[in-house]
Structure formats: structure tokens, C-alpha cells
Specification:
heterodimer, A: alpha/beta, Rossmann fold, eight-stranded mixed beta sheet, about 30% helix, B: alpha+beta, Ubiquitin Conjugating Enzyme, two-stranded antiparallel sheet, 4 helices
């Protein structure tokens, strides 16, 4: 008898819980209001308008942003945009949440094992159900996935039915950055590159407008000099270190500039570096390389040149252009780390130009004009691929 | 720094000519022929030097590669499966060679068992686009990686010798 009563009580309790959930759930909000009440999640954002910082904050709901790489930088980036009330997010990542990620922000131990995009979408929708979140759980660098990535960010990607308004690269490897670069050059989409160094003490963001600013393939990757002698950097037994601080700061830079670009306030930084050891923040503007290896980059450069000069001044930023770069001292110890004898190389002059003190190219590349002296070259005349494949298999 | 032995085996691999990636259709077929030719030459060189250490083959499109590599330590032969995809940005970016069965067994690896290459690999690759191909990535990337990591993993006991089961 006792037990049946207990059971009845339990059922009653359960039903009651169903009626009034234990945790308040944030309902969808049809229109952003600037009313200052405790229950309005947008009141502090809409205050930007009243204060005259942003003309039309609620326009943020019209924008679609693709975030590629939902790791230490990308997940925080997505959360910031979600809390800002962005219209739609496209999340790309092929990785799973691991306990080894817990030194970073956003993900929690109970999410270990879930795909990063799935786990992120759940949390983000819970925080702000007004944001449309789409997930893509794959590696964008393979042939098939790349095509799907291109389709996703171009034709039907955004709320307006057109291409996404901005792509944010939060990936951790060169291959994925180059893939995003190819896609954005091809589709003529603006994007931000972001990164944190493998020693966790420097980072950067870079704004790329195809044809107008240097693309990611225009020069070797840029790194913020950390003033650490590479030879003393111990890499035995580890691939990469990471800090939630550096990643959070880079995500903050990234989203701040995203908001400025989308909502048209302030100045967008073309390149913003961060050296955590000295709290040094170099900025600069990089021009595209006329000899860039990416043919679509060259095509975009030609289109920009063909435009009437007035339009060439890219929209939102005027005071930043053509700032004279000074190199009167070398306090950040800029040097090119390179194994090649400098006399062998005729380093492309376009690459070195305009680099601000404290930022260097990760390596140098000989100019393509260098004479070819390859005696040992393949000669495929008269052989078929099938024969070669069979020959290899038979070895 | 690249060691002398690696440097020597590298110079004996023929360099490639065609700058084309898997999205380049006909040009990619040409590049693929060059890849196979360089690989065949490299395996022949290895055999000739009594240092035969891998086999590779690809799918029909040449976008996905798989095979085996082996490493002799104290007269015992340790064998591992290799796999990797050719990224759309190839050959501007090198293939990311993976040994999936060693995933999680060494810190010198990225997720999925992709080997963690030295700081020297990427600059060297970038300077040699499009001349370097898969054979060069094997000689310059996987070869030295195995030489450092496998003895270390054996010593730590994270991998152990397996008797060959095949006839």
C-alpha cells in the first residue's frame, strides 16, 4: 500500500514538472525590442542604437555567417554571434568533442563524444532560439565535401536565399585555410581568417576581400613574432599547446570585426595580430599579389582594377588605407626562418612589402623566375594511367 | 633540418611537372600519371638500396590513397596501414598522411592518426610546388617520422610486435 501511494505521488510530481519546466526556457522572439526590462535578451544590444554606436542593430537578424572549424576559436565565435542575435549560422567541422578540449571555452565534459557541430547547435539554440543553426559534419578539404561546402555557402546558404554574408575561418590547419581561400576566391565572398599559434602565445585575424586585399595564397602564411628563439622551443612529445585566453581573445577580435563589417560601424581591421607575451597588437593592410598562384584571385584583382576608381576604395574603411609602414627598429626581432641560402632565392618582392614590424612570413618562397635545373623529371609520354596503376600494384 | 640519408633518397625521386589538383579533370589525370611514375621509381630505388618500406595504391580517381608501411626494429618487422585523401588544394598543400591504428598512441599525431610533421616539412613543400608529389611526402614526411616515433613507441610499450598471420 505504501509503495502504491509513493508511486502515485511520483506520477503526480512528474506531471507537475511537465506542466512547469524546472528551468526557464527562452522562447522565440519575433521582433527585437529596445525596451529595457529584465526579460528582454536584446535590450543591451539595442542600446547600441540609442547611444549612436550602431545605426540599425536589428539588421543583424538579416545576416548569415558561416563558421568553419568549431574548436577553441570557432565555438566561442559562434556563441558570441548567437548572443548578438545573428540571423543564421552555418557550422562546419568533422571533429568530435573530447575531454582534451576542456582547457578551452564553450564545450562541457558531458558533451564528450558528440560531434562538435551537433553539440554546438544544441547549446546555441538553447541560448538563443531565434538563430537558425545549420550543421555540416565533414572535412571540407576532400573533393566531394568541398563541392558541398561551396554549394552550402553560395547558392542556398543564407536567409536571403543568396550566398552567406561572411565566412569565418576558425580552422587549425593550412589545408583547410587554403580550401576556404579557394572557395571564397571562386565565389567572390569576403571572409576572415583567424588563427592561434601552436605555442598558444600569439594569434591573428585577417580580413580578405577577394581582389582587394591579399588572399591567403598571395603570400606564405604570416605569423606574429613571439620573440621566442625557435631553437629553444621544445616540441618534443607534443604537437600543439592551447590556452582559453588566447583563443577567447582571437574569437573576440574576430566577432568584433564581423559586427563592424556587417553593421557598418567603426573600422574593420585588415590584419590584427596579437603577441600575448608582450601584449603587442600589430595592424596592417595587405595588398594582393599580382602573381598569386590562385587564378581566381588574379581574376578578382582584374575585376577590381576594371572598376571605376571611386568604387575601388572598399566600402567601410578609408582612414586605414596606404598607411606608411615604418621599420626604424627591429625590436620584435623580425627575421625569416629559412634553411635555404638567401643568395639562391629571389624572394618575391610583393611578399615582403607592407609587413608591419612584429609580423613575418612563416617561410620564404623562391620566385618562379628562378632557373629550372631539374634533370631528374618524370616522363609520362606513351604510358597510360591504368598501366602505371597496375605496375605499382604488382610491385 | 633534413638528414643526409633523407636528402639522398629525395634527390633520386624524379620531380613532377604538372601543377594540377583533383578538381582539374584532364590535367589531374596527367598529374596522377606523374605521381605513379615517381612512386614506382621511388619504390624501385628503395628495393635497390635494400630499404623497401612501403606500398601505396589509390582509388580510380586518385583522390584516396591507402597501403602499408613497415619499419624494422631489432630485426622485427612492424607493419602499419596508411591512408590519406588528396585535398582539393593539392599540390599547393601536401597530403596529410595518416596511420589510423596509431591514433592516440603518440602525441606526435593529430586527430585521425595524421602524423605531426616537423616545422621543416611545410616550408620545403611550399618551395617545391608543383615538383614534389606523394613520393616526396613519403620520403620527407612519413619516413623520418617512423624512424623517430616507432622505436620510441616500442620502447614505451604502446605498440608490440605482431606475428604475421598471412601464409
Amino acid at each position: 500500500m505504501e509503495s502504491t501511494k509513493k508511486l502515485e505521488l511520483k506520477q503526480l510530481l512528474l506531471e507537475k514538472q511537465k506542466q512547469e519546466p524546472a528551468h526557464p526556457v527562452r522562447e522565440k522572439i519575433l521582433q527585437m525590442s529596445s525596451e529595457v526590462v529584465d526579460s528582454n535578451p536584446y535590450s543591451r544590444l539595442m542600446a547600441l542604437k540609442r547611444m549612436g554606436i550602431v545605426d540599425n542593430y536589428e539588421k543583424i537578424r538579416d545576416f548569415t555567417v558561416a563558421v568553419v572549424g568549431i574548436g577553441g576559436v570557432g565555438s566561442v565565435t559562434a556563441e558570441m554571434l548567437t548572443r548578438c542575435g545573428i540571423g543564421k549560422l552555418l557550422l562546419f567541422d568533422y571533429d568530435k568533442v573530447e575531454l582534451a578540449n576542456m582547457n578551452r571555452l564553450f564545450f562541457q565534459p558531458h558533451q564528450a563524444g558528440l560531434s562538435k557541430v551537433e553539440a554546438a547547435a544544441n547549446t546555441l539554440t538553447f541560448i538563443n532560439p531565434d538563430v537558425t543553426v545549420e550543421t555540416y559534419n565533414y572535412n571540407i578539404t576532400t573533393v566531394d565535401n568541398f563541392q558541398d561546402f561551396i554549394n552550402g555557402i553560395s547558392s542556398h546558404g543564407s536567409l536571403s536565399g543568396g550566398p552567406v554574408d561572411l565566412v569565418l575561418s576558425c580552422v587549425d590547419n593550412f589545408e583547410a585555410r587554403m580550401a576556404i581561400n579557394s572557395a571564397c576566391n571562386e565565389l567572390n565572398l569576403c571572409w576572415f581568417e583567424s588563427g592561434v599559434s601552436e605555442n598558444a602565445v600569439s594569434g591573428h585575424i585577417q580580413f580578405i576581400m577577394p581582389g582587394e586585399t591579399a588572399c591567403f595564397a598571395c603570400a606564405p602564411p604570416l605569423v606574429v613574432a613571439s620573440n621566442i628563439d625557435e631553437k629553444t622551443l621544445k616540441k618534443d612529445g607534443v604537437c600543439a599547446a592551447s590556452l582559453p585566453t588566447t583563443m577567447g581573445i582571437v574569437a573576440g577580435f574576430l566577432v568584433q570585426n564581423t559586427l563592424k563589417y556587417l553593421l557598418g560601424f567603426g573600422q574593420v581591421s585588415y590584419y590584427l595580430g596579437y603577441n600575448a607575451l608582450t601584449d603587442f597588437f600589430p595592424t596592417m593592410h595587405l595588398r594582393p599579389n599580382p602573381a598569386c598562384d590562385d587564378s581566381f584571385c588574379q581574376q578578382r584583382q582584374d575585376e577590381v582594377k576594371a572598376r571605376p576608381p571611386k568604387e575601388q576604395e572598399s566600402g567601410r574603411d578609408t582612414s586605414f588605407d596606404d598607411k606608411e609602414v615604418t621599420h626604424e627598429d627591429n625590436e620584435w626581432g623580425i627575421c625569416l626562418v629559412d634553411e635555404t641560402d638567401p643568395s639562391e632565392l629571389e624572394v618575391d618582392k610583393n611578399l615582403g612589402q607592407g609587413l608591419v614590424a612584429g609580423v613575418k612570413a612563416a617561410y620564404s618562397i623562391p620566385s618562379s623566375a628562378a632557373p629550372e635545373v631539374d634533370t631528374n623529371q618524370v616522363d609520362t609520354s606513351g604510358v597510360s594511367l591504368d598501366d602505371l596503376m597496375a605496375q605499382m600494384k604488382a610491385m | 633540418m633534413v638528414d643526409e640519408a633523407t636528402k639522398k633518397s629525395l634527390t633520386c625521386i624524379p620531380v613532377l611537372k604538372t601543377k594540377a589538383g583533383p578538381r582539374d579533370k584532364d590535367l589531374w589525370v596527367q598529374r596522377l600519371k606523374e605521381e605513379y611514375q615517381a612512386l614506382i621509381q621511388y619504390v624501385q630505388n628503395n628495393k635497390g638500396a635494400d630499404n623497401d618500406w612501403f606500398r601505396l595504391e589509390s582509388n580510380k580517381e586518385g583522390t584516396r590513397w591507402f597501403g602499408k608501411c613497415w619499419y624494422i626494429h631489432n630485426l622485427l618487422k612492424y607493419e602499419f596501414d596508411i591512408e590519406f585523401d588528396i585535398p582539393v588544394t593539392y599540390p599547393a598543400t601536401a597530403p596529410e598522411i595518416a596511420l589510423p591504428e596509431l591514433d592516440g598512441k603518440t602525441a606526435k599525431m593529430y586527430r585521425g592518426g595524421k602524423i605531426c610533421l616537423t616545422d621543416h616539412f611545410k616550408p620545403l613543400w611550399a618551395r617545391n610546388v608543383p615538383k614534389f608529389g606523394i613520393a616526396h611526402a613519403m620520403a620527407l614526411g612519413l619516413g623520418p617520422w617512423l624512424a623517430v616515433e616507432i622505436p620510441d613507441m616500442i620502447e614505451k610499450g604502446v605498440i608490440s610486435y605482431k606475428e604475421k598471420t598471412e601464409g
